[in-house]
Amino acid sequence: MKITHNEAECRFEYRSGDALAVCDYQVAGDVWTFTRTFVPDSLRGQGVAAALAEAALTHAQALNVEVVPSCSYIESYMKRSPKFAGLIKGNAGKKVNNGGMIS
After folding, report:
1. pTM higher than 0.90, yes or no?
2. What are the Cα distances from residue 39, in Å, to 1, 9, 43, 91, 99?
3. Which of 35, 55, 76, 79 gets the highest tally of CB atoms within 10 A of its CB?
4. 92: helix, coil or strand?
5. How far apart are CA 4 and CA 28, in angstroms?
6. What is the DSSP letter of 69?
7. CATH number of the domain that 10 lies in?
């Protein structure tokens, strides 16, 4: 699945034919606020939202930015993926235990 970063639109995208799935974010300095993940009906149930979240959070991690998960999907994805817990604004540098909890 090819996810592209559309930096001009501040979103990650997946296209299949005419269908477009997106993960939108806003930038304020070194903080990315993820505001929406949208997958059209024709692409649901194929792991598209997870692929968008993984690509977006991996990119944010590579840039060493903090994340505000205002989007409920991104928030739940981060809870299921402890490797991204340190990105959450205010959690930078904190350790994550095996249960995904910050200490």
Report:
1. no
2. 14, 17, 6, 29, 29
3. 55
4. coil
5. 21
6. E
7. 3.40.630.30
